[in-house]
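Checked the freezer inventory, then went back to the computational side. Two predictions to log before the end of the day. The first one is the construct we discussed on Monday; recording sequence and tokens without edits.
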Amino acid sequence: MYFVTSIERSKADLAAYLCVVLEVKSTNGTTLFRENTHASSTQKWRAYWASDDEIVLDSSDVGPMKWRVGDKRFLGEKVSK
């Protein structure tokens, strides 16, 4: 399992436009989870594995967010850091 980030380019939802998108993928590339984090890509941010089962997105505009992975599937649980 791995994650990738991208920037939302669709203007369908202007509140989500240019925000960081987090995708968790299986080893064969299948998307298990996708979420627009609403962290602005124009601000400072970083995403990283905090442990074997936690991904952290730390953003200067919305603060830190954490997602937990469990039971070999992505739960999408957001927790304050």
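The second is the one RB wanted added to the comparison set:
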Amino acid sequence: MGYTFMLSYCAACKRAFTFNPLRVPSIILKDKEEEGNQPICKPCALRWMKYHPEVKFTIPSDAYEPVDENEIPWDYITNRKTH
């Protein structure tokens, strides 16, 4: 058994960060290069929550932690766009 995490750039601030791909908060982008849900880092998620208190959501405690590799479905890995 092993653990893994994803490494990507935050869709909001463009900084690199690691996350659990099944639990991380994301935003929907509709531009020429990237489309669909894109992950955001914890500082950006907290900032968004501060400025949008009317929208209630929580950041899962394991959103930015490694995940057991057996929890990630194989089709999730093979269908994911790489940047």
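For RB: The chain is about 20% helix and 25% strand. The first strand starts at residue 3 and ends at 4. Let me know if you want it refolded.
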